[in-house]
Amino acid sequence: MSSSVITRFAPSPTGFLHIGGGRTALFNWAYAKNRGGKMLLRIEDTDRERSTPEAVDAILDGLTWLGLDWDGEAVSQYARASRHREVAEILLAKGHAYRCYCSPEELQAMREKAEAEKRPVRYDGTWRDRDPATAPAGVKPVIRFKSPQQGETVIEDHAQGRVVFQNKELDDLIILRSDGNPTYNLSVVVDDHDMGVTHIIRGVDHLTNAARQTQIYKAMGWHVPEMTHVPLIHGPDGAKLSKRHGALGVEAYRAMGYLPAAMRNYLARLGWSHGDDEIFSTEQMVDWFGLDAIGKSPSRFDFVKLENLNGHYMRGTPDAELLAAFITFLPHVAGGPEMLGRIDAGMKAKLLRAMPGLKERAKTLVDLMKSAQFLFAERPLTLDDKARQIMADGGVAALTALLPVLEATEWNVQSVEAAVKAHAEATGAKLGKLAQPLRAALTGTSTSPGIFDVLDVLGRAESLNRIADALKSG
RNA sequence: GCCCCCUUCGUCUAGUGGCCCAGGACGCGGCCCUCUCACGGCUGAAACAGGGGUUCGACUCCCCUAGGGGGCGCCA
């Protein structure tokens, strides 16, 4: 079992789970499942200033909504700080690290000077070889990693291929802050090692870190995990996704009415592919998923395609299941709680009955909410502009003639349909001349599921009354 | 500025030297179905960033240019 795969998703709790993070989690999850391994969850909360418990909750909630689970408890990186310090001390003892007494101001000046002189911005190694005895009094030092100055560090990356960094390009990074707290690159290495992580899958923005981390692994004599750096997801316009530009938390996608299964399918196709397959179940994804089919170029997020995919999933979801999803969705959308409050057993039955016609026309749960509106409407209905136009353009006359026919008809889909069609034939009118006015009167709009289904779901009394209402006000 | 990476239809992508005058999907146009809107079916337009090589033969390999992205914190 020691050879089994262990991946991890390691978000920092400084905000919601954004779409790129969601995909990274999905890839880690899918790979672990594919290999019969485990996916661990580690919260990278060593930045005490910016980490919040609310963000941790939001991330967990986002993952759960996406349908991604993890093995064991979520690990707090901050809780492991003493172990990180211990490793920093070991590195120090082994001569792979040293104390640096430069102040933040000096470092800032160093950076600015380098920038002004158009030189690479790096730590100059001032304290690398200086005698600690010359240390200024009263200054709390940081510990820096003594990075190799010659040779190269190679990453054999499953997505990026072989990436070579010249060691001279990598400066001596701080691994322990002057307040004794570890920094990211140290913590990650220690945790991934201690947690037995075999495969690291994360965004390419970590590629340079991968080189630095590799050096730390080697200095400790530890085995370096397999690496996969996934290209980033950009906004629809190709610009980088950022908090003020299009980056949404996964809960925003929930509020937009997307189904988790559709989300997973869509995200899987961003940067990963399996031949020409576009629509596949999560089981198939797990079955097919592999690191070497991950591409190298960034992709754009395309809402139109997501919407189309979501429509597929909506139509493919059994009515009762979709109704359940709809009900759990309502609390998350504007106007949803109000609608939810009006869903009793009777309304549930109506929704279920109307679902085949409703879901056929909806791309999102928000669409479903809108198109189901007519079931909730109370008499007398307010007609929208198009509906009113239909009534004005002969609708009133058509319904006036049709009403007695309906009143005399047995109420079920078949007989109502037969009656309306017979009436159309008898009067020489096209079915549309009757269906549209009916739709206007019954739903207050010009679009809806098949009109005979509407008649059926609404029931005889309600249907007849709505028609009478429309005739009165028309 | 320095380092690393990327570049196939508008978008997501297939393609690993000949199967490709480049395939699929979304979107877009047309037609059909039709009580509206959708769905569905058929059909059409639409791409190998540019330039050099290598090779009998390049979307596929190499180099250069251009464009794009990522990184360069006592953030993660």
TrEMBL record:
Question: Which terms are listed as keywords in the entry?
Answer: Ligase
The record's top EC class is ligase
Its EC number is 6.1.1.17
Q: What is this protein called?
A: Glutamate--tRNA ligase
